[in-house]
Amino acid sequence: MAHTLTREEIKELYRPPAGQIVEVDVPVLKYLVIDGEGDPAAKPFREATRWLFAAIVPLRKIAKQKLGQAFAEPPLEAVYWTKGAANLDTAPKSEWCWRCMIVLADWMDEAMIADAIDNAVKVLGKAPDSLRVEEMHEGRSVQIMHAGTPENDRDLIAKIYQDYLPARDLAPSGLYHEIYLGDARRVPPEKMRTIVRQPVA
User: What residues contact 159, with CB distance under 8 A and at least 6 apart?
Assistant: First the structure.
């Protein structure tokens, strides 16, 4: 069952210290997701992002009308994997697969989400085939805040996979995860902030 994040958990999961790898325990969370593949800087990822935000923004109004709940617009997130055996730190981004997603409050029921998607359809047309609600439990994870554009985080990925995890006898146990705290359309590249997260065991 999806978890309701407390303010303390939000701070721990979405505001890690800059430049320091930390361990966190991520509970079961509910997301609105769209799947795709290829470079995250390419058009399909941008279109998926546009679709998710088109659905999320009306949820703020619907939530307030139906439940009196305040719902701050959460950040865009994405998990990544590759088509073949190559690791993310070595595979070209054209071979990446991704799941673009935005976390949902656990009190948002199916009817509320359906209303929000219907509103987005009126603006953008047919919904992507992979659009759905999905729960994800990452559990024990390591994460670090990256300063700058997500395209420049390769060194950080290598630091996690090649240095931090082997030194602590840890191994990846889930999908590589990025959380984008800045809007690339409005924030200068040097001020972008991305949380890099990797579930481990």
Answer: 21
In a domain, 86, yes or no: yes
> Which pair of tokens denotes residue 157?
């990925």
User: What's the first-to-final CA gap in the chain, in angstroms?
Assistant: 22
Residue 134 pLDDT greater than 80, yes or no: yes
Structure confidence by residue, pLDDT tens digits, 76-108: 999 999 987 667 777 888 899 999 999 998 888
Mean pLDDT across the chain = 87
Long-range contacts of 120-126 (CB under 8 A, 24+ apart): 120/51, 120/54, 120/55, 120/58, 123/54, 124/50, 124/51, 124/54
Q: Is the pLDDT of residue 10 over 90?
A: no
Q: What is the CATH number of the domain that holds 122?
A: 3.20.80.10
- Residue 63 confidence (pLDDT): 75
Q: How many domains does the chain have?
A: 1
Mean pLDDT, rounded, for 119-128: 93
Q: Are strands 132-147 and 76-82 parallel, antiparallel or unpaired?
A: unpaired
Q: What tokens does 26 get?
A: 């991520």
Mean pLDDT (whole number) for 58-72: 75
Residue 142: give the domain boundaries.
7-199
